[in-house]
Structures are given as C-alpha cells and as structure tokens.
Amino acid sequence: MIQLGITGTDKLTVKEKNLATWFKTGLAPVYATPSMIAFMEETSMYSVMPYLEEGDITVGISVNIKHVKACTVGSEVVCHTKLEKIEDNILTFYVEVTLDDEKIGYGYHERAIVDRERFLKKL
Fold it and tell me: Residue 56: what pLDDT?
C-alpha cells in the first residue's frame, strides 16, 4: 500500500551520455538537465514499485525542476525522492539531486498510477 513519506535514493556517475553536449541541449560538457530529470523520474518510480498493486505501474506526468549547479563527467550524483502527496491516482514527489551533499537540482515530479495492460491497450 502506498503511503506518504516513501523515500528513494540512487547514485549515478555522470558519463558522456549524460552531458548537455550529448543531448544537444547546450555547448558546455556538463550534466544535462534532461538527464538529471530522467534520474529523478527513475528514482521516484522505483521508490514506490514495491507498494503498487499487481498489474499497476506509474507513469510520469509532470516535472517542475530547477537545475542550479553544473557538474562534469565522473561526478557522482545522488538522487533523493520523497512522496509528499497522494491525490486519487496521482503521486507527487519532492526530488533532489546532490553532489557532495550540495544541491544541484530540485523540484517536484508527479506520477500517475495506471493499470499496465489497460494503459498499453490505449496506445
């Protein structure tokens, strides 16, 4: 059963494929915002998976993120998530990515709980 306060944590070492130059979203070889957001979404998703009913999954539906500090290849970043709100089938997470305990990105991410089979049939 999903309850408020569920947390998640994961680590990632920044690689070439995580850089703004690889994503073509910037000209500096720094950790890309889209990569950071994907890391936040993944950490949120996995944090609640053990609590879902059989056949259910979560899908990302919104992000409101600030990327406030740059880092480079080889940096080990850590993502922390906390489930702060549950409204019907919508889960709202506070998400934060840090480098050496310094915040480099933060904000909110929403995921919807859906029945996997019904969801896929609608595609």
Answer: 98
Could you tell me which of 59, 55, 71, 68 has the C-alpha nearest to residue 19?
Answer: 71
Confidence (pTM): 0.96
User: Can you give the pLDDT at residue 115?
Assistant: 97
Structural contact between residues 78 and 10, judged by C-beta atoms closer than 8 angstroms: yes
- What are the start-end ranges of the H helices in 20-123? 20-23, 33-48, 116-121
Between vectors from CA 93 to CA 38 and to CA 122, what angle results, nearest 5°?
Answer: 65
CB distance 82 to 5 below 8 Å: yes
Task: Pick the closest to residue 88 from 114, 59, 120 (CA basis).
Answer: 114
Amino acid present at 88: D
Average pLDDT over residues 36-46: 98
Distances (CA, A) of 96 to 11, 24, 39, 64: 12, 23, 10, 11
Separation in Å, CA 115 to CA 45, 57, 76, 80, 85 = 15, 6, 35, 26, 20
